[in-house]
Design goal:
It is globular and about 110 Å long. The protein is built from 31 helices and 21 strands. Strands 3-2-1-4-7-5-8 form a seven-stranded mixed sheet, sandwiched between helices. A four-stranded mixed sheet has the order 16-19-21-20, with helices on one face. The N and C termini lie far apart (about 95 Å).
């Protein structure tokens, strides 16, 4: 030191049980610095060692430039570094591990980088192409390190290839500020400090160094997992109060919508879900069962027995149902159902908010308003009755964001392309039709933006094309087998046709949905296929507001693109035939060009109207952001107009009804003596898309038996056309007709022979007639078909027809 002033350099060495290595390390550092012109201090931090580490440091501290700090107990590298840096006084601070895996002579490289650049930190890098790795770690540890660094780059500090090398040189004051703000005690401290530098705009230079693995490393395999947990803590801490507040508001809104379901999970059933809640709970249960028993998650014979169900050709949302298997097994599928819906709407709204905050407006509350509109728009709420694959869309904004990044000047084509490919692959396991509609929306936006700014095509076209190519190379191998199974595997089908009346009425865009605050269920019911397919219903005030925003901000290319996307999507959603309201005039619709194309032929075209939701959300976010910065009068008037346009479509809580109790015969396991392995239970009538309670009974019976019939998409006929439910048979049609009031036919030998053939096809072990409307007529029908009376067991009639 010079005249008692602060030194040029402070060296901080954290040490835990380093009795054998610390002495040579301190000697090497002292010898190197002794030959330099720098004034220096060396701070050893004993992190609660239980060997002679502190004694070695005390012996070295005979040199007044060496100090020992001792922690009361072992708390981790992060805590030790925080103590050491806080005690430092140097103009620069060097952090080095006690093993000197990077020789102290490499300090000169780092110092030279700081001297000749604008960097506030120079960090040693083993991942740099010019780095010299003399002795490598074990293969497993080296692989874990590479994977960890990739994850860290993706979620915390993009662009830094080696955050964990224990040799870093910082500007002293900036280092002390960063470590004073740090909270992590473990190995994740390196990432936390680099994040702090990034947030404050302090450049970090990555410098190639010599490095050799040293035996006795304190980093074990479990520490990689601890670093990941610390990354989660970092992300949570990095979240701004605004982010947390908006997430909490979105979550509260979702909980309020489903409050009646949450308060009665044992008996509650979403009233407007039709049979979809039974179907989805079955999907969650079967997926969990397949995972638990290590069976193929893409196929099952528990429904549609004996042919089975191509699960990839249906909508089990494997991207969520598989990871939520522990929840399903521990708490039941109804909890999973409620969680997916509630958290799905929350995450979707939050994801749109983050997208709008990045690309549309710098005002987070304005972006949050847009996110709320996109996530809780009337068509989203309609599908939230029964279709999680159409309301849990949190990956769509993430995919859009990554595609937009490929269009920016700072695009990293390889990284962004890889991530886009991974995100797309994951979305395929959440919902393919949604991904198709989102792709249509993105294409419409791209075309609209290109028309507004044609020069952009030349600027971003090459990078975007390369990025999409990289994404395809990443995505296709991941989904090749599942998609091959979906389209060509067992029980695959070609398309599901919905007729010519599946488009939206033009009036539906101006009316309010049944769930809206000012909505009218009777009016909405007349304009939609059903209450889960109210795919427009944005209301005339919001449409008028969007029109006003478009006119006022028309000079902006973004506004032109958003308006073009919304209008084009609305027109496509009108379907193949458009009936002019209040007339008998029918016009051809633009959907005719797509209706019979592969993939599009199975789409309910009215759902294209959902693309308008994020477009309108972005327009509202943009306008609200500009109004927030306007003068007081304009701000108050403008925001009042926005509020008045959105208030009528605020959703109201979902109606929940009490679920019919499960027959004790199934709930208490009384079916077991009658059904042998390989046999099915034939419920009367068989479950179908109109009445799928038997799926719920099967779930309550722990999936102990397969069911013929069911509610799913499967093939029908020689052309394998897609239909809802199993291919009908004579006996299943008869039982259904009688159940819904049909007359009992004259059942003779032909009918009995057909029943025997159908039961043999279904490999039936037991026929069960639960209490229901027309159960007397059903009892008579089954008795005549089987030629014997049924037996009453715990409230149901049964016929033992097994082998």
């Amino acid at each position: 030191m010079t005249d008692g002033g602060p030194p040029d350099l402070s060296v901080v060495v954290p040490a835990y049980n380093e009795e054998r290595r610390l002495g040579p390390t301190l000697d090497a550092i002292r010898d190197h610095l002794h030959g330099s012109a720098l004034s220096w201090e060396l701070i050893v931090v004993d992190d609660g060692s239980d060997d002679g580490t502190a004694d070695v440091a005390r012996e070295a501290a005979a040199d007044p430039r060496i100090r020992l700090l001792a922690a009361d107990r072992n708390r981790g590298k992060g805590h030790a570094l925080r103590l050491g840096v806080a005690a430092s006084r140097g103009a620069r601070v060097l952090l080095t591990d006690a093993d000197l895996a990077t020789p102290v002579a490499e300090l000169d490289r780092l110092a030279k980088e700081l001297d000749g650049a604008e960097a506030a930190a120079a960090i040693g890098s083993r991942a740099h192409p010019e780095a010299d790795i003399a002795v490598h770690q074990g293969r497993v540890r080296e692989w874990l390190g590479r994977m960890g660094n990739r994850l860290i780059r993706a979620v915390a500090v993009p662009g830094i290839h080696d955050t964990q090398c224990g040799f870093k040189l910082f500007d002293g004051d900036k280092a002390r500020a960063a470590f004073a703000d740090a909270r992590l005690d473990g190995w994740g401290i390196d990432v936390e400090i680099l994040q702090y530098f990034r947030r404050h705009g302090w450049p970090v230079a990555e410098v190639p160094v010599r490095w050799s693995h040293q035996e006795g490393s304190k980093v074990g395999p479990a520490d990689y997992g601890r670093v990941l947990l610390e990354l989660v803590r970092l992300k949570a801490r990095a979240a701004s109060r605004t982010n947390l507040a908006l997430f909490a508001l979105f979550l509260l809104s979702s909980v309020l919508l489903y409050k009646d379901l949450w308060t009665d999970l044992g008996r509650g059933y979403l009233a407007d879900s039709g049979q979809d809640q039974n179907q989805w709970e079955w999907f969650f249960s079967v997926t969990a069962d397949n995972v638990r028993h290590l069976r193929d998650p893409l196929f099952t014979t528990l429904q549609g027995f004996p042919d089975g169900v191509n699960l990839m050709g249906n909508t089990p949302m494997l991207g969520l149902s598989v990871p939520l298997t522990p929840v399903t097994l521990a708490l039941g599928p109804t909890v999973t159902w409620a969680l997916v819906l509630t958290l799905g709407l929350t995450a979707t709204s939050y994801a749109w908010y983050r997208l709008f905050a990045r690309w549309v407006t710098g005002n987070p509350w304005a972006a949050g308003l847009g996110g709320a509109l996109a996530g809780f728009a009337p068509p989203m709420i309609s599908h939230a009755n029964a279709h999680p694959n159409f309301c849990v869309l949190f990956m769509i904004p993430v995919i859009v964001d990554r595609a937009l990044r490929l269009c920016s000047p700072a695009a990293n084509v390889r990284r962004d392309g890889v991530l886009l490919g991974l995100f797309t692959a994951y979305q395929i396991f959440l919902g393919e039709e949604v991904l198709l509609l989102a792709s249509v929306g993105m294409l419409l936006f791209a075309l609209s933006y290109a028309l507004a700014r044609r020069e952009v095509v030349r600027e971003v076209g090459p990078a975007l094309a390369k990025g999409l190519g990289v994404a395809a190379l990443v995505c296709l191998p991941l989904v090749a087998y599942p998609l091959t199974w979906q389209f060509f595997g067992s029980q695959s089908y070609h398309s599901v046709l919905h007729g010519d009346a599946a488009g939206n009425s033009p009036l539906s865009f101006l009316k309010f949905s049944g769930r809206a605050l000012l909505g009218d269920e009777a009016t909405a019911d007349k304009l939609a296929l059903n209450r889960t397919e109210q795919n427009a219903f944005y209301g005339w005030p919001l449409i008028a507001l969007a029109f006003a925003i478009t006119v006022r901000l028309w000079r902006h290319a973004l506004v032109k693109a958003l308006a073009g996307t919304a209008v084009a999507a609305a027109l496509l959603s009108l379907g193949q035939k458009i009936r002019v309201p209040y007339t008998d005039v029918v016009l051809p619709g633009p959907w005719r060009a797509l209706a019979h194309r592969p993939l599009f032929e199975s789409v309910i075209e009215g759902r294209v109207g959902m693309v308008c939701a994020p477009a309108l959300g972005a327009l509202v976010a943009l306008a609200a952001g500009r109004l927030a910065a306007a003068g007081r009068v304009n701000r108050l008037v403008g925001l009042a107009a926005v509020a008045l346009a959105l208030l009528p479509i605020v959703p109201t809580p979902f109606t929940v009804t009490e679920r019919a109790p499960v027959p004790s015969f199934f709930a208490d396991g009384l079916w077991r003596p009658y059904v042998k392995p390989g046999e099915s239970v034939v419920t009367v009538p068989l479950p179908d898309p109109a009445a799928a309670d038997a799926l719920h009974w099967q779930v309550r019976a722990d999936l102990g038996f397969p069911l013929p019939g069911g509610y799913f998409n499967g093939p029908w006929g020689p052309d394998r056309m897609g239909i809802y439910g199993a291919s009908p048979r004579w006996t299943s049609n008869l039982l259904r007709d009688v159940r819904y009031g049909g007359a009992i036919p004259d059942i003779g030998d032909a009918w009995r022979a057909q029943a025997r053939a159908d039961l043999a096809y279904w490999k039936a072990g037991l026929v069960v007639l639960p209490p229901q409307d027309n159960d007397e007529a059903l009892y008579t029908t089954v008795t005549r078909l089987l030629g014997k009376e049924g037996r009453r067991v715990d409230g149901v009639w049964i016929w033992d027809v097994g082998r």
